[in-house]
Amino acid sequence: MLYKPVKDFMDKRTAYYQGLEDAANEKLSHASALEADYQSRMDSAEDEITRMKAKAVKESEAAAAAMLKSAKEQSEKLVLAARDSAELEHKRMISEAREEIAQIAVAATKKLLEENSSKIYDDFLDAAAKEQDSE
């Protein structure tokens, strides 16, 4: 009499704990699958991050190279413009110096001619006066 109710109780208890164990195993299996999926996604994300970093590095290097090239071109243009400007200024200064030298030479020649012509005129008048006196 006691055997059957105890056996039923033990069977129910065994079935209950078996159900709990099955549910725990199912949850554990589901958790393992989620963990594997999560790990796969993490690996995929890390790979994507690595690719994006490499792409960003390449783009920044290309941008830096382009900026450097542009800066070099601008500096070369500035140097050429400065050289052209300096050459034009040099030519202008030489031209002005030549004009000044020419003006100084003309003024000196004019002064010499004026001094000489008045001296020559004075000498002529002196010679003419002496000639008149001697006659």
Supply the key terms.
135 residues, 1 helix, mainly alpha, single chain
Structural overview:
The chain is mainly α and 135 residues long. Helices cover 98% and strands 0% of the residues. The chain has one helix at residues 3-134. It starts with a helix and ends with a helix.
Short recap of the structure:
With 135 residues, the chain is mostly helical.
Q: Please, what is the average pLDDT?
A: 89
The shape is rod-shaped
End-to-end span in angstroms? 196 Å
Helix content percent band: over 70%
The biggest beta sheet, please? none
Please give the structural blueprint.
Blueprint: H1 3-134
